[in-house]
């Protein structure tokens, strides 16, 4: 009897949510292994020099790293590549790159864009993720100045838009591509849908998600993805 595939992950990682959305959609029995957020390189040493989540281990023991390659691998192994085949191949690759650059970089500003939001986010992350007793408190109190003062502020300055404006503009751009369809890929979600959904889903455990709920088209698509993956 073959063992279930495993997903080494963090609860709040947007790249992990991309994978989790597809496994939920395909109803795959997955062993979700939550790694210690302060010891990822050590706990993922079996994956070589990658050192980051997500890491997928198939039921046969094959190890796959990086979220988009994992999506394609799961689709091929568990669904004969049907998800990737939905829609135009060239357009899918173009918008996968768009999601993995534009949406991925927009998650940090909305979660850590102000000192207050950064503090709330790190406290929430410390509760959701697997830490040791001391490292949980260290992250909660020392992490937010770094995420806000070094990473988020730089991204907001370089982009020039407030985090909410940035997300609304990106959702405008994304949903404009499929105004007459439920999903980017048509009547059923495709690989781009799962990529975009993962980034948006990763914000949902935090109060900042409320900044996205008044984007009607974006939420209509998001709620359709929620239903498809439930």
General description of the model:
- With 230 residues, this protein is of the alpha+beta class.
- The protein has 2 domains: 6-84, Glutaredoxin (3-Layer(aba) Sandwich); 87-225, Glutathione S-transferase Yfyf (Class Pi), Chain A, domain 2, CATH 1.20.1050.10.
- It has helices at residues 14-25, 40-43, 67-79, 82-85, 89-112, 115-128, 133-159, 163-175, 191-201, 216-229, and strands at 6-9, 31-34, 55-57, 63-65.
- It has a 4-stranded mixed sheet.
- It starts with 5 loop residues before the first strand and ends with a helix.
The amount of helix comes to 55-70%
Which ranges are low-confidence, i.e. pLDDT below 50, for 5 or more consecutive residues?
none
Average pLDDT score: 91
Biggest sheet overview:
4 strands, mixed
- Principal-axes geometry comes out as globular
Descriptive labels:
230 residues; alpha+beta; Glutathione S-transferase Yfyf (Class Pi), Chain A, domain 2; 2 domains
Strands, helices and their partners?
Elements: E1 6-9, H1 14-25, E2 31-34, H2 40-43, E3 55-57, E4 63-65, H3 67-79, H4 82-85, H5 89-112, H6 115-128, H7 133-159, H8 163-175, H9 191-201, H10 216-229
Parallel strand pairs: 1-2
Antiparallel strand pairs: 1-3, 3-4
Summarize the structure.
With 230 residues, the protein is α+β, with helices and mostly antiparallel strands.
């Amino acid at each position: 009897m073959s063992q279930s595939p495993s997903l080494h992950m963090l609860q709040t990682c947007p790249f992990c949510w991309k994978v989790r959305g597809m496994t939920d959609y395909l109803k795959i029995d997955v062993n979700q292994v939550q790694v210690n957020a302060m010891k990822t390189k050590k706990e993922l040493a079996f994956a070589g020099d990658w050192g980051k989540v997500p890491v997928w281990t198939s039921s046969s023991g094959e190890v796959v790293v990086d979220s988009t390659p994992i999506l394609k691998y799961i689709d091929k192994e568990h669904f004969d590549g049907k998800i990737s085949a939905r829609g135009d191949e060239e357009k899918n690759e173009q918008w996968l790159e768009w999601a993995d650059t534009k949406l991925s970089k927009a998650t940090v500003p909305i979660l850590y864009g102000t000192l207050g939001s950064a503090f709330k986010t790190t406290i929430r992350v410390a509760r959701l993720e697997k830490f040791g007793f001391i490292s949980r408190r260290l992250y909660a109190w020392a992490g937010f100045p770094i995420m806000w003062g070094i990473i988020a502020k730089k991204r907001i300055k370089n982009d020039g838009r407030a985090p909410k404006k940035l997300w609304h503009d990106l959702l405008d751009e994304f949903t404009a591509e499929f105004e007459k369809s439920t999903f980017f890929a048509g009547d059923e979600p495709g690989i781009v849908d799962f990529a975009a959904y993962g980034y948006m889903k990763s914000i949902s455990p935090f109060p900042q998600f409320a900044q996205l709920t008044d984007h009607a088209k974006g939420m209509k698509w998001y709620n359709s993805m929620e239903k498809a993956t439930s």
